[in-house]
# Entry
Amino acid sequence: MAEIKRGILYLVATPIGNLADFSARAAEVLKSADVIACEDTRHSRPLLEHYGISRPLMALHEHNEDVVAARLVERLSQGETIALVSDAGTPLISDPGFPLVRLARDAGIQVAPIPGPCALVAALCASGLPSVRFAFEGFPPRKSAARRALFESLKEESRTLIFYESAHRVEETLKDLEAVIPAERRLVIARELTKRYETIVSTTIGEAPALLEREPDMRRGEFVLLLEGAPPTLEAEDLSPEQARVLRRLLEECSVKTAVSLAVKITGARRERVYRAALRMAQDDKRKDVET
Ligand code: SAM
# Structure
């Protein structure tokens, strides 16, 4: 049996649907914890009983985390072993725990992850979308206007984008994505991962709302939405999206020479790269003027 050290904060991943996805190490650590901090004791107790784990539980959720975190760090300082679990998956991933981990690390306490299920990782691996570079955005805002504003700000993002979404909002969120993101962009809808009705569907932004309309089952359960990144623009070969944005804005106001000088100063990008991108942008604009 692996040695369980004292005075350590363990972050223990639990299943996201399939109870068999629970590691031997996770069980060992939870059995030896002085206290298990969990989001909802009513939710975690049956799960822990299933694995034969009977340890004191303490609720740590978004409404009490600051107060409870301070108490737990006090106990850790006295040498107790504390494990943190969430309702499902990996703690801190769209789940409570960040204040506790920050406080514990600042107090010099060892924080040890016990890795395991995580919906975003499971969905990404199976999605068929590029996984070398990706960005996890958590849950999009609840209000449509804020959601659209977020999608607008991510329109040019070239990394695969990952969102969590609930059954209540998935249809509205897909409609907002369709309003902002080009229709041909690939989208993968991963629902009920590791569960009986696990479904991972590859579609496009333009087709997704109709797909959910047609198939009521596709509106039920828990969702991960994965959006293919934007194709790289020519200037992105030379500049980051933020550098390109700054340059484009400067070109609207100044000559190419001035815009390049200012962009170099503001962004720190290399002059020849900025210059190349500026020429391409200026050419594109001229072409667009001729076309219209
Ligand atoms: N900490 C968890 C993790 O590691 O993935 C996520 C917790 S967050 C409160 C819950 C959200 O994760 C759900 O609304 C859904 O978007 C996603 N999720 C969790 N389990 C899932 C599953 N089995 N299939 C698809 N999505 C899931």
Q: What stands out?
A: The mean pLDDT is 93.
